[in-house]
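Re: that backbone. Tokens:
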């Protein structure tokens, strides 16, 4: 289900593509629309599977090319999710974000927000006299299913 936030992100992404002189149709639009339906990171292969089922289907090379362009424009963030598999997540233009706990065995990803972590990063920024413009936290371990 599309929310106002995901709709705003999709509009922002398509406008940014146009401002960069890139076409906003075809594969790029399909990838942007697919990403806007995901609340957390999604792998390129999962996007590829999703977009192959639509009409007209989007080719794998086009999916990867679109993801690379979106990453270069700062619209998505690439992250390793499991054993060399990359996940792509929307970058909210307002700066709102969450972090991830990822199972090393099965790749399960659990998004989380922690205000005390954000405060600690702010304090660290002050103590280092360093302006932190972005950060991401990934906790790796084993989920409950894989631990048993």
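Recovered sequence:
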């Amino acid at each position: 289900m599309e929310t106002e936030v995901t709709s705003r992100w999709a509009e922002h992404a398509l406008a940014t593509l146009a401002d960069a002189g890139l076409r906003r149709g075809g594969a790029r639009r399909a990838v942007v629309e697919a990403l806007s339906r995901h609340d957390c990171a999604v792998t390129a292969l999962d996007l590829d599977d999703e977009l192959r089922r639509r009409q007209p289907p989007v080719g794998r090379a086009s999916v990867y090319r679109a993801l690379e362009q979106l990453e270069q424009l700062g619209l998505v963030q690439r992250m390793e999710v499991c054993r060399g598999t990359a996940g792509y997540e929307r970058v909210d233009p307002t700066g709102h974000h969450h972090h991830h706990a990822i199972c090393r065995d099965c790749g399960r990803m659990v998004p989380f927000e922690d205000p005390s972590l954000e405060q600690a990063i702010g304090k660290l920024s002050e103590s280092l006299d360093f302006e932190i413009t972005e950060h991401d936290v990934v906790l790796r371990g084993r989920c409950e299913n894989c631990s048993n």
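The radius of gyration is 17 Å. The chain has two domains: 1-92, 98-148.
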